Amino acid sequence: MARLSDLLLPTERQPPADAEAISHQLMVRAGLVRQLGAGLWSWLPAGWRVHQRVVAIIREEMERIGSQEVLLPLLQPAEPWRRTGRYDAVGDEMFRLADRRDADMVLAMTHEEAMTHHVAQVVRSYRDLPFSLFQLQLKERDEPRPRAGVLRTREFVMKDAYSFAADVEGLEEQYARFREAYARIYDRSGLRWYEVESDTGMMGGRRAHEYMAPCAAGEDDVVLAVDEDGATRYAANVEVAEATAATVPLPAAGDGPRPVDTPGTATIAALAEQLDRPAGTLLKAFPVVVAERMALVLVRGDHQVEEVKLARALGGPVRQATEEEIGAAIGPAGFIGPVDPATPIRIVVDRAVVESTAASPDGGWVVGANVVDRHLDGVVPGRDFEHEVADVRRVVAGDTVEGLPVTIEPAIEAGNIFQLMTRYSEPLGATFLDADGEERPIIMGSYGIGPARIVAAAVEQYHDDRGISWPKAIAPWDVHVVALGKPGTEEQEVAARVATELEDAGLRVVLDDRAGGAGQKLTDAELLGCPLRITVGRRSLAAGTVEAQIRRGQEDVEGGLPLEGVADAVRDLWERIP
Is-contact 412 217, C-beta < 8 A? Predict the structure, then answer.
């Protein structure tokens, strides 16, 4: 049993001035965390209890699927990172340093290199596979804009796991086990969550999923299609989401492109206003460079390019072309288009443009004429210029998936999993001999969860104007016993006895035995957010009862609970809390 008279729980009336996310505000006000520096957070006793309850759930579910726990160094030599190419590719987010012997070192953001290094030393045969390893270890990331409390930090604990298999079938089996384990972790933690298709990003590989907890503070956007029964039929990160856009009717194209004078219309908004045309009937041009080659990407004027999808479509990282590069290869910036550019150029048209063109077979688009203050009307892709087709636009609300309209909502990424394939085993020499004696690279998967993100997501999803309302499984304590009256009074003595009985009944209990007034004690209890509050005061003692309140919804138990047999009554009430 914890006593607030002994506990470091520095609650605050007001949130930090720079706190925008609810989780940032309430976790500081409830005395769970404190900031040491930008993106560097310390967990205080009550907050660490919540964090470790999440960790316990994660560890149980990892062991349930047979994953074995290890612990690898946070400080690592740079050489394995150079061999995988990530030492240079990651950029400034990686902490790099040199030791006293001037050897290059890194503070690990993740542990693919280290884990693969060790496996390469011990695995020899297909008989050694498959298996998986996991750890709960610090990660370091030089986050350029730390924000939202513990959501975006420079140092954090992460559970990262890695599977090793002899073939793709073995990877798929391991991947399925981790997906099931992740579902149990989030369900047990009490979160509302979605599994969504995602981009593999810097991790590499062929397939990835993210686990998203919807809330207003989320830094990612999730695209959802829900059927009439409320079942989610489609979920994807907006970075990779695909959906069908409503087509736009196009004006007649005529026999060929027609020049139109459009002075001062270097933006889609200005052009649409001058021509009195919907933005969706204009084509927006994005000149980019990929692998040192210029490409012109065209989307509808009412759509935006999604950079992750664009990089996938073009086959590598892209950057925006400079004004000088645009002028040399295509034409003057603000008026560029796909018809007769200055030099032959790769042209990519978004799929939604093609679909609208097909829906208006006699229609045409407005594009830049590659001349200052001039555009071309009645342009038809395929007739007036050659092009590739790719899905490169950002999905918007109202698009459809299998006839269902999609919505977009913000969410916190609370975990991710990747099918790495041989992305790390090949450069690091992690191989095995198959049944025919042939050497093959190990097929890998990677699986990450951030306990702090689960904690913050729970606060974001379950709070009210008085404080946090924890899910039962991860609350710092099950029951908050509040003793009214001063130390040494009957209320205090009875409250201590009740707290002891509840502990003996298997509940986790915190007792507020401080000398403060009722207002401060009840306010702190609401702020801290334990699922059940028991209050012992003079009035309830006179009636032979204790007051009881379920924190979520601030639901008071009418008439309280009987003091005689209070442990059984509280236990029964606890079991009925969702």
Answer: yes
Contact status, residue 503 vs residue 1, Cβ threshold 8 Å? yes
pLDDT of 204 above 70: no
SS3 356: helix
Tokens of 565: 């047999």
Domains of the chain, by residue range, sit at 2-74+108-226+408-459, 258-390, 477-576
DSSP class per residue in 73-138: -SEEESHHHHHHTHHHHS-TTSEEEE-TT--EEEE-S--HHHHHHHHHHH--BGGG--EEEEEEEE
CA distances from 503 to 231, 548, 561, 567 (A): 41, 17, 17, 9
- Residue 269's H or E segment, with its range, is helix 268-275
**Which of 214, 197, 215 shows the shortest CA–CA distance to 206?**
197
495, 483 in Cβ contact below 8 A?
yes
Strand locations in 291-364 (E): 293-300, 318-320, 346-350
- Given a cut of 80, whether residue 198 has pLDDT beyond it is no
Residue 441 DSSP one-character state: E
The candidate with the shortest Cα–Cα distance to 337, out of 368, 297, 366, 296, is: 368
Number of Cβ atoms within 10 Å of the Cβ of 42? 10
CATH number of 2-74+108-226+408-459: 3.30.930.10
For residue 427 the two structure tokens come to 């450069």
Counting every residue written for the chain, the total comes to 578
Give the phi and the psi of residue 163 in degrees, each rounded to 5: -110, 150
Whole-model pTM: value is: 0.87
The CATH superfamily holding the domain 258-390 is YbaK/aminoacyl-tRNA synthetase-associated domain (3.90.960.10)
Give dist(CA 531, CA 469) in Å, integer: 7
- Count the neighbouring beta carbons within 10 Å of the beta carbon of residue 441: 19
Question: DSSP letter string over 484-529?
Answer: -S-TTSHHHHHHHHHHHHHHHTT--EEEE--SS-HHHHHHHHHHHT
* CATH architecture, domain defined by 477-576: 3-Layer(aba) Sandwich (3.40)
What is the chain's Cα-based Rg?
30
Tell me: the pLDDT tens digits for 90-106? 989 999 999 999 999 99
Neighbours of 516 (CB within 10 A): 14
Interacting residues of 562 by C-beta distance below 8 A, sequence separation 6+ = 544, 545, 569
